[in-house]
Amino acid sequence: MRALTVVPQQAGSVRVREVEAPVAGEGELLVDGVALGICGTDQEIARGEYGSAPPGEEHLILGHESLGRVRQAPQGSGFTPGDLVVGVVRRPDPEPCGACARGEFDMCRNGRFTERGIKEIHGYGSQQWTVAADYAVKLDPALERVGVLLETASVVAKAWEQIERIGGRAWFEPRRLLVTGAGPIGLLAALLGVQRGLDVHVLDRVETGTKPQLVADLGATYHTGSIADIAAKGEPDVVIEATGASSLILDALAHNAHYGIVCLTGLSSSGRKLSIDAGELNREIVLENDALFGSVNANLRHYELAAHALARADRSWLERMITRRLPLDRAHEAFEPGGEDVKTVIDL
User: Fold this and answer.
1) What's the confidence (pLDDT) of residue 272?
2) Residue-wise over 239-269: b if at least 16 C-beta within 10 A, else e?
3) DSSP reduced 3-state for 165
4) What is the pLDDT of residues 133-180, one digit of tens each?
5) How far apart are CA 2 and CA 348, in angstroms?
6) Is residue 48 a contact partner of residue 9, using CB atoms and an 8 Å limit?
């Protein structure tokens, strides 16, 4: 069978190559790959910035944003042939920390976790793959064209769960949400905000095209100015920062409402330095009871929350998020620079 592979830490090594077909072990599903989403993490692995192959192997099968259809399922697993499924990305460390031992492996305390298509386990970028039934999530069959968005949505579902838990430290009734960045994370964060009945605002640099239209079709408001301009008309109770831009992070902290929550989901590039008044920043956070936290990855509960959110969403809106579909033999094009795609998907 064919698979999308990379030699970790070696830039420009992404290839579609023949690999051995997998054999399902005890308690595992054998799955026919349907689609694979490509995100910034995959791009960084392709550039040789990080990633690691399974022990003793040179190549890593890429892909953590999966979608497949069950070919074989063990009896009593809860799955049957034909089921549409997504595989969870992260696995607990071999000697679980307290969080991993309780199923909260997205919050691993010691960093010894492994991840499909990223760290020490082959990913889902192949025409067939296997996954333990305990790490598979069944999807509504109606989501076949958009189910590949589930992994991204699970990251957003976790962020919202954490926001609501932090808000629950006292009375919490947010009304206004600001999302910075209109990529897949930002758009899905906005979707879940709309589903919560919030007044949603999205900030991005792109002035025309798919992104502004997707935001408008959600019933949200699209902006290309600054956070200060948006806040002047109403400070956000919640900010979900999805770009990793250092200046936006600081602006979000300076222009949110009292008792506001800022959730960081974007990864910043190292090397850029900004001068800040740390004392003033401290005063604002303390005196306004603000909360700032980071969120990444997801556990099984978040995948299930995300599946419910996608099932409630407008299918055509979700499908328009996927702006480019490539066949597997053209997968290399997903890693070429340029373009204004929102989401690229490889058909397996």
Assistant:
1) 67
2) bbbbbbbeebbebbbebbbebbbbbbbbeee
3) helix
4) 999 999 999 999 999 999 999 999 999 999 999 999 999 999 999 999
5) 9
6) yes
What's the sign of the alpha-carbon dihedral 312, 77, 133, 38?
Answer: negative
Judge residue 227's burial from the number of C-beta atoms within 10 Å of its C-beta, 0-12 exposed, 13-18 middle, 19 or more buried.
buried
Could you write out the three-class secondary structure of 70-121?
EEECCCCCCCCCCCEEEECCEECCCCCCHHHHCCCHHHCCCCCCEEECCEEE
Contact 58, 40 (CB under 8 A): no
pLDDT of residue 327: 98
Low-confidence ranges of the chain (pLDDT < 50): none
Tokens 């989401």, residue located: 343
Q: What pLDDT, on the 0 to 100 scale, is given for residue 285?
A: 84
- Ordered by where they begin, the domains of the chain are 2-138+314-347 (3.90.180.10), 154-294 (3.40.50.720)
Which secondary-structure segment (H or E) carries 301? helix 300-312
How high is the pLDDT of residue 274?
67
Distance of CA 288 to the CA centre of its chain: 30
Angle at which helix 184-195 crosses helix 300-312, to 10 degrees, equals 70
Distance between alpha carbon 39 and the CA centroid of its chain, in Å? Answer: 8
Q: How far apart are CA 112 and CA 14, in angstroms?
A: 26
**Cβ count within 10 A of residue 88:** 26
Q: In the structure encoding, which two tokens stand for residue 224, read together?
A: 């290309």
What are the structure tokens assigned to 49, written together? Answer: 């910035």
Where residue 339 falls (left for φ over 0; alpha for ψ -120 to 50; beta otherwise) is: left
